[in-house]
Amino acid sequence: MSRAPRVAAARKNWGSDDTGCDFLHIDMDSFFAAVEIREQPQLAGKPLIVGGSKERGVVSACNYEARKFGVHSAMPIAQARRLCPQANYLPVRHELYSQVSKEVMKICASITPQFEQVSIDEAFLNIAGARLRLGSATQIGQELRARIRNEVGLPASVGIASVKYLSKIASAHAKPDGLLMIPKAANQEFLNLLPIEAIWGVGPATAQKLASKGITRVEQAAALSTHTLVSMLGQAAGIHLYELCHGIDNRGINTQRERKSLGKEITFSQNQDDMEYLHRVLLNLADELTARLRSQGWLARTVALKVRTGNFETKTKSQSVNPPLNTSPEVMQVVAQLAKQVNLGADPIRLIGIRLEGLIPATQGIQTTVDEDPKAKQLAAGWDAVRARFGRQALGSASLLGLANPKEDSDQSLA
User: Fold this and answer.
1) Is the peptide bond before 323 cis (omega within 30 degrees of 0)?
2) Which CATH architecture has domain 14-189?
3) Alpha-carbon separation of residue 64 from 11, 16, 187 (angstroms)
4) Residue 255 pLDDT class (50, 70, 90 cuts)
5) Annotated site (Substrate discrimination), which positions (predicted)?
6) Is 121 annotated as contributing to ligand binding?
7) Above 80 in pLDDT, residue 306?
8) Cβ(75)–Cβ(85) below 8 Å
9) Which residue, 11, 52, 80, 344, is the most exposed by fewest CB within 10 angstroms?
10) Are strands 156-161 and 179-181 parallel, antiparallel or unpaired?
11) Which of 365, 380, 382, 374 is nearest to 323 (CA)?
12) What is residue 54's predicted lDDT score, i.e. its pLDDT?
């Protein structure tokens, strides 16, 4: 789900002229939570938090009803319970979500072969070739949403625009369960309403640098010359920002997108220095990523750890492994070494993430550690089967990293 900043004024009817508006971005609404509500319809309309029932777990996803109470992803479960004690708390079921994602992407592919999946719950489509068969851009967007609703049983939001990245911003403003089209002639007017953080590539550090110059909105940055932005941010970043602030994006749909890595990172609402909590977050990330690896038939040859401190210093370390891996314990053993290299714990952390790189098909015939031990291989398959049915909370992991205080009884059963 998109976390792009949203502006109420930008969610309006911008007109019906879809000339040149060939980019469509589909984004599933509260995907994990929506899948759980589909499985248990009695939960509809009630606050739902996906992330397990343990007091020391981490929120993986929540629906809009829960967000009204201030709950958000990456929040400690204990804090979520204080904010929304009446919510329903469910464990994460990544294998189920991966299967549902495949159903959604199959529908996208039936609309047009010009589609690019970018995450488990979102994709870009170039609908130029589908117009003659399916109608206007808006009609195609509504058709896609209706089919996902009818065939998969889930809500989805659609953004349509003349350039790729604007369609993604539009889908964020279409939420929940809506459609927003930005006519080409309205690109600049739409952009001018947005905060500068809405632009791709503008993270906290860049936003802070621009804010120090009094630039907090796209309209302000768009009024500056390329030279001025380059002097502020450097050659590549300055040109990138100038182009996006003017609605310039020459990228097309990558239908042959090769999966080279799989990663996830968490940005905390408050800087974290609780090592036990950071350990649980890392374990949660490793568990999720390796479950996705196995469900998609991949092995990883490199593990990377990324941390960003409260003063926006970013540290990234990676380590190659042989044989390649696809289980959480293997990943966490590498992460333990990388954590020492980045000196994790020396400073409060704003962001933390794991990326699995150098992906190769599991069918390529390279023998892995799991393959060398039939019992370990059977155990991993058993984890996936049990979690697909009962959720990841059904099985816990032993302490792996040594990041938690060994004097405390650290809960390793994360959701």
Assistant:
1) yes
2) 2-Layer Sandwich (3.30)
3) 18, 29, 28
4) confident
5) 32
6) yes
7) yes
8) no
9) 11
10) parallel
11) 365
12) 62
Tell me the CB-side half-sphere exposure of residue 224, using CA atoms within 13 A. 25
Q: Which CATH number fits domain 261-394: 3.40.50.720, 3.30.1490.100, 3.20.20.100, 3.80.10.10?
A: 3.30.1490.100
Q: Which of 65, 122, 197, 330 is catalytic?
A: 122
Q: Are 182 and 21 in contact (CB under 8 A)?
A: yes
Q: Does domain 194-245 have CATH number 3.40.50.450?
A: no
φ/ψ of residue 88, rounded to 5: -85, 130
Question: What single-letter amino acid sits at 109?
Answer: A
Active site residue 55: no
Count of beta carbons in the 10 Å neighbourhood of residue 157: 25
3-class state of residue 414 by DSSP: coil
Residue 174 — very low, low, confident or very high, per pLDDT cuts 50/70/90? Answer: very high
Nearest-5° Cα angle at 174, 168 to 178: 125
d(CA 164, CA 152): 26
Residue pointed to by tokens 């393959």: 371
Beta bridge partners of 33: none
Residue environment code for 343-355, b if the CB has 16+ CB neighbours within 10 A, otherwise e:
ebeebebbbbbbb
373 is in an annotated binding site: no
Answer for the pair 229, 240: CB distance below 8 angstroms, yes or no: no
Beta bridge partners of 49: 62, 89
- Domain range summary for the chain, segments of one domain joined by +: 14-189, 194-245, 261-394
Non-local (6+) Cβ contacts of 56 within 8 A are 76, 77, 78, 276, 277, 280, 410, 411
CB atoms within 10 A of CB 61: 24
Q: Which helix (H) or strand (E) holds 336?
A: helix 328-341
Q: Kindly report the average pLDDT of the chain as a whole number.
A: 85
Of 176, 229, 178, 228, whose CA–CA distance to 199 is shortest?
Answer: 229
The token pair at 184 is 């080409």
> What are the C-alpha distances in Å from 185 to residues 220, 261, 329?
19, 37, 52
